[in-house]
């Protein structure tokens, strides 16, 4: 069976319509990314000037041989710094624990305790399978109404926008990262992830796993008072 290749239109009108269609497609593809940038413009801070908030949320970013990846370690370092400086009281670590041999939240907890955050001030969310799930669960399961979110710069805008859509008043801290292959991949991925984020914000689907409310955050806050 012969497959015909698409042909460039022969007429100027046809060529003009094709160019306009391509341009319209590019604009539509970039609209979600533009929404993320505009909607979070005033919500990004640094570890030095982020408002004092009871809870910080750290999103999982992969493990290397059971230990936090360098990207995840940078996020956890920022959380530990915020705790030491008194800008936060509790850290909610949210990540993937869908397999017995892969446990992001426990690895994150172990890292934080080694870096000065008391175990009693750390709460684990084992069903943070993606950013939307983590944000919805922070609100509905752990009762978080306001939080500092910690991630890399290429991801933090999406995290803030989604948590805001989930009902969590959020500020984002985008930690620095080496501009390596992972960084460029993450930045490119965000262009496509922005589309899903926009759909999640509009449709507000339930996370993959919801479950009953958990008092972990409230208990951790009470333990320090």
From TrEMBL:
Start and end residues of each DUF218 domain: 55-173
Superkingdom to which the source organism belongs:
Bacteria
Q: InterPro entries, alphabetically?
A: Cell_Envelope_Assoc, DUF218
Stored Pfam families: DUF218 (PF02698)
Q: By its UniProt entry, which PANTHER family does this protein fall under? A: INNER MEMBRANE PROTEIN, PROBABLE PERMEASE (PTHR30336), INTEGRAL MEMBRANE PROTEIN (PTHR30336:SF6)
Q: What is this protein called?
A: ElyC/SanA/YdcF family protein
Please name the source species.
Answer: Streptomyces bangladeshensis
């Amino acid at each position: 069976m012969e497959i015909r290749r698409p042909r460039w239109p022969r007429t100027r009108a046809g060529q003009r319509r094709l160019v306009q269609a391509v341009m319209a497609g590019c604009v539509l593809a970039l609209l979600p990314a533009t929404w993320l940038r505009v909607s979070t413009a005033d919500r990004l801070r640094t570890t030095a000037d982020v408002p004092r908030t009871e809870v910080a949320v750290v999103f999982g970013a992969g493990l290397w041989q059971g230990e936090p990846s360098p990207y995840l370690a940078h996020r956890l370092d920022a959380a530990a710094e915020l705790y030491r400086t008194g800008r936060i009281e509790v850290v909610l670590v949210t990540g993937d624990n869908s397999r017995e041999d892969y446990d992001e939240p426990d690895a994150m907890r172990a890292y934080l305790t080694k870096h000065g955050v008391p175990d009693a001030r750390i709460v684990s969310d084992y069903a943070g399978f993606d950013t939307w799930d983590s944000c919805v669960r922070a609100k509905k399961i752990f009762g978080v109404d306001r939080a500092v979110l910690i991630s890399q710069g290429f991801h933090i805008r999406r995290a803030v926008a989604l948590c805001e859509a989930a009902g969590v008043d959020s500020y984002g801290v985008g930690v620095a990262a080496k501009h390596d292959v992972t960084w460029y991949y993450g930045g490119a991925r965000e262009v496509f992830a922005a589309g899903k984020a926009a759909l999640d914000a509009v449709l507000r689907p339930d996370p993959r796993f919801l479950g009953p409310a958990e008092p972990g955050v409230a208990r951790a806050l009470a333990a320090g008072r």
